């Protein structure tokens, strides 16, 4: 670098993330190999937003300045050979938007250093970025605690003369989420026609709007899940879960050039039916004060028989032990694959009174953020990239079986419950043993 080497800026404690109102301090260090004149050594701290109409371009069409402070740490003189060190300190304004980097715009914060030399002599400069985080508390967002429900009816014509309709309803468990939380989605499809629908697709969408003379909108699917088609005249329920990956917050308070929105889009391509559920992404999750978990009853429990008394006209026999209930058939086709782990209660997608609809529709494939192919079975551990998010290994099958294009990898039955031994019966001369007979044997 000529007469100056190791020209760099360091922050105290190597801190790179700050909040509005904080002070940022550090040191400018460089090494001079031989004496050189300088007019001044200056340090600058600034923050701004730049927006362009070309993807990944830094030739900003519109800019918005948040703060710009400059201090001079050395006046006109001669720099002697050796190591040079200049401390600095800046105050970040209390009102400044969160750092953001998008395709058509950025919110940038940085500290720059300049060594201003005399005319016809090379100037030296360097810079170091830092990041600003303004926490978005979802509890402060207006009207965020209401139900998040949407419904649409689509009438259409097929085979030129026949007509029908599709009733599509969707509901999410909350209106606001933080990265690492689970979105619980329930969709009801009523096919009031004689034509089978296409697959139903639910997507977590991000829309970023950049304000220029001609506004630019960047729309992308962050996560996507698919469910099976619905046959003619049938009504089906589809429940799904999605983990919210690390994402920028919904609101960039203080920025007028960039706007971020999130919503869940539920779509059936044939016939074309679409609805949306707006949601917010923040940093502080919603508190659940005033909400109670619905209580559930075990429908599989068998009531204990009441002993018959002698006054009923029957002999007073000793109480009999109730036979063990027969194992229920595996309703694999009525469960939904786990795109995300269950909540802390360990319940699956249908536990605790969720979803609000009836019979479930099986899902067929899954993809999120491009990390999984549609043919890859999903494990809760696949999403452990979220900060501080871990899942216990003992709940491997707590979310139901995993489907991949119709092939189910179902958990094996309990070794304590065996099916009847039909080979012991002399069929067709006699009927096979019942479940009760098998247990008694």
UniProtKB/TrEMBL annotation:
Domain Arrestin C-terminal-like, residue spans: 1-137, 162-286
Biased composition (Gly residues): 345-355
Top-rank taxon: Eukaryota
Pro residues composition bias: residue spans: 316-328
Region annotated Disordered, chain positions: 285-357, 390-441
Feature: compositional bias, Low complexity: 292-311
InterPro entries the record matches: Arrestin-like_C, Arrestin-like_N, Arrestin_C-like, Arrestin_domain-protein, Ig_E-set
GO MF term (any one): ubiquitin protein ligase binding
Pfam families attached to this UniProt entry: Arrestin_C, Arrestin_N
GO cellular component: cytoplasm
Gene Ontology BP annotations: nervous system development; protein transport
PANTHER family: ARRESTIN DOMAIN CONTAINING PROTEIN, ARRESTIN DOMAIN-CONTAINING PROTEIN 1
Family: Belongs to the arrestin family.
Name of the protein in question: Arrestin domain containing 1a
């Amino acid at each position: 670098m000529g007469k100056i080497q190791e020209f760099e800026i360091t922050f105290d404690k190597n801190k790179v993330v700050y909040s509005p109102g904080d002070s940022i301090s550090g040191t400018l260090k460089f090494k001079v190999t031989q004496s050189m004149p300088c007019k001044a050594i200056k340090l600058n701290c600034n923050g701004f937003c730049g927006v362009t109409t070309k993807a990944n371009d830094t030739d900003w069409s519109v800019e918005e300045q948040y703060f710009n402070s400059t201090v001079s740490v050395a006046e006109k003189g001669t720099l002697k050979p050796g190591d040079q060190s200049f401390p600095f300190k800046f105050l970040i304004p209390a009102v400044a938007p969160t750092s953001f980097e998008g395709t058509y715009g950025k919110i940038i914060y940085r500290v720059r250093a300049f060594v201003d030399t005399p005319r016809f002599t090379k100037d030296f400069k360097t810079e170091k970025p830092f990041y600003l985080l303004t926490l978005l508390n979802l509890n402060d967002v207006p009207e965020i605690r209401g139900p998040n429900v949407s419904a649409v009816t689509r009438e259409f014509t097929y085979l030129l003369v026949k007509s029908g309709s599709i009733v599509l309803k969707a509901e999410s468990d909350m209106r606001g989420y933080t990265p690492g939380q689970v979105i619980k989605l329930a969709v009801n499809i009523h096919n009031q026609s004689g034509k089978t629908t296409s697959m139903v697709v639910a997507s977590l969408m991000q829309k970023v709007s950049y304000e220029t003379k001609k506004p630019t909108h960047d729309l992308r699917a962050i996560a996507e899940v698919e469910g099976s088609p619905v046959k003619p005249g049938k009504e089906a329920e589809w429940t799904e879960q999605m983990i919210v990956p690390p994402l920028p917050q919904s609101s960039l308070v203080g920025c007028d050039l960039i706007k971020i929105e999130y919503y869940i889009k539920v779509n059936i391509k044939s016939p074309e039916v679409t609805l949306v559920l707006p949601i917010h992404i923040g940093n502080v999750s919603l508190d659940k004060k005033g909400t109670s978990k619905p209580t559930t009853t075990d429908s599989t429990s068998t009531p204990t028989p009441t002993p018959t008394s002698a006054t009923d006209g029957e002999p007073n026999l000793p109480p009999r032990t109730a036979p063990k209930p027969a194992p229920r058939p595996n309703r694999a086709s009525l469960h939904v694959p786990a795109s995300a782990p269950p909540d802390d209660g360990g319940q699956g997608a249908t536990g605790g009174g969720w979803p609000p609809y009836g019979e479930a529709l099986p899902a067929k494939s899954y993809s999120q953020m491009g990390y999984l192919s549609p043919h890859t079975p999903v494990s809760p551990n696949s999403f452990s990239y979220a900060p501080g998010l871990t899942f216990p290994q003992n709940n491997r099958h707590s979310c139901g079986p995993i489907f991949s294009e119709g092939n189910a990898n179902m958990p094996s039955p309990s070794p304590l419950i065996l099916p009847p031994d039909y080979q012991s019966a002399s069929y067709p001369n006699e009927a096979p043993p019942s479940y009760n007979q098998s247990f008694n044997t």
